[in-house]
Amino acid sequence: MDQLVAESTPLKRTMRTFDLTMLGIGAIIGTGIFVLTGKGALTAGPALSVSFLLAAVCCGFAGLCYAEFAAMAPVSGSAYSYAYLAFGELIAFVIGWDLILEYALQAATVSAGWSGYFNKLLEGFGLHLPVELTAAYGTNPDVTTYFNLPGFVIVLIITWVLSIGINQTKRTNDVMVLIKLAIIVLFIACAVWYVKPSNWQPFSPYGVYTFQPGSTQPYGIVPAASIVFFSFIGFDAVSSSAEETINPNKTLPRGILLSLAVSTVLYIVMTMIMTGVVPYQDFAKYIDAPVAGVILETGMNWLAVIVNLGALIGMTTVMLVQLYGQSRICYAMSRDGLFPKFFGHVHEKYRTPFKGTWFFGLLTAFAGGFININVLFELVNIGTLSAFIIVSAGILWMRKTQPNAPRGFRAPGVPVTPILAIVFCFVLIAGLNWETWVRFAIWFGLGLIVYFGYSRKRSKLGLEQKAGADTKVAATED
C-alpha cells in the first residue's frame, strides 16, 4: 500500500467535494429517470419507488466500502486499484477488464437514448434528420435505420472535452448537472398537481418476484431493481478521480455518499409522481420516453421542450462520467503494465491520458453509431455488481490483514456493512436473465486469455518478480 500511495502522479489536482458530488450526480441521474422508469413501471408497478430504494441501499452499502478504499488508497483506477491492493494482480485485471466493458457499454447505450431525445427536440422546432441516420441498424423493426449520427457526434464532443483537461471537464459537468437538477425540480413542482392516488392501487401488483404466464422475463420489485440498478452506475467513477482530487482522503468519501443520497431522493420522488400521474400499465405506450409521456397526460406541452433539454443534458453528463472513468481505469492498468503503455501516455500540455481517452471515445462512438447495444445493457449491471462484490470483500480482507493501515474514512458497521453489500448484489444479480450470464461468462473468458497471453508477462509486478528470480539464480551460480 505504501508503494501505491507514494507514487507521484502527472495528473492535475483540481477536484473538490462539490465537483465530485456533481460528478456523481451527473453519472447517476440521467438514463434512470428519462428512459428506464418506463420499463421499470411495467415490471414493478407503482412499487418501482421501492425498487429504486432497494437498488440505492445496495449501492449505499457498496458506496461505504468504496469510500473507505478511496480514503485509504487515493489513486486512479477505482475498483481495479482496490482489488489490486486487496487481492493482487489477477483479480484486479478481471475487475478492470469488467469495468472497461461496463463503462463502454453504458456510454454507447446512453448515446442511443440521447439520440432519441435529440430527434424529438428537433421535431419540436420542425426539423428532421434523415430517418436512416437516427439510430443504429436494427434498433427499430418498423423503420430502416443504419447509423446513429447524433449519438456518434455527442460521444466525439465529450471525448474532446475530456481530452483537453480536467478543469474543462469539471466545469462543463458542474454547469450541466445544475441545469439538469433545476429542470427536474421544475418537472416535480408542475406534475405533482396531476397525481391521482388511485393510480397507486394496487401498489405492488407483481409482488417481490414472480413470472407472468407465457413470459420468460421476471416481474416484481426485485427484477425491477435489477433493471433500474443501471441508473445508479457511475458513482464508482467518482473514486477513479482520486489522483485529480484535492485532499482525496476526505473529499472522495463525501462526494461518493452525497451524490448517492441526493440521487436516491430524486429518483423516489420522481417515480412516485410519474406512476401517480400515469397508470403503470400505460407506460407501455411511452416505453422510450416515459417522462415525455407523463407531460403528454398532463397537457403541459410547454414543459415538453424543457424536459427534452433536461434529458439531453442528463444523458450527456452520464456519458461524460463513464468515458472519464474508463480512461482513468485504463491509465491505471497501463501504469501497472497490464495494458500497453499507449493507454498510460499523459499529454504534456493537457495532463490527461490523451491517447487512451480518444481510443475508447472513438470505439464507443462507433459502437453506439453502428450497433444496436440496447439488448446488452444488462451486461453493464452484472459487471458493476461483480465489481461491488469484489470491493466489499476487499474491505473484509483489508480489515483482517492490515487493521492498522491509515484510513481517512472507516466504513461503519464492518463486517456487517460489506456483507450486506455482497448479499444485496447477489440478490440483484439473481434478477437478471440467463442470457446476461452467458454473455458475461464469454467476456470473462476473453479477459483471461488477454491476461495470460499478454498482461501477465509484461506486468510491473511480474517483471519485478522475474528480476528478483534472476538475481537469485545469478547469486547461486556465483
TrEMBL record:
Subcellular location: Membrane
Superkingdom, taxonomy of origin: Bacteria
GO molecular function terms noted in the UniProt entry: amino acid transmembrane transporter activity
Transmembrane spans: 20-42, 48-67, 79-100, 146-165, 177-196, 216-235, 256-280, 300-325, 356-373, 379-397, 409-430, 436-454
Transmembrane found in the keyword field: yes
One Pfam family in the UniProt entry: AA_permease_2
Keyword Transmembrane helix in annotation: yes
Keyword terms: Membrane, Transmembrane, Transmembrane helix, Transport
GO cellular component: a single term: membrane
Membrane topology label: Multi-pass membrane protein
UniProt-listed PANTHER family: CATIONIC AMINO ACID TRANSPORTER 4, INNER MEMBRANE TRANSPORTER YGJI-RELATED
Protein name: Probable amino acid transporter
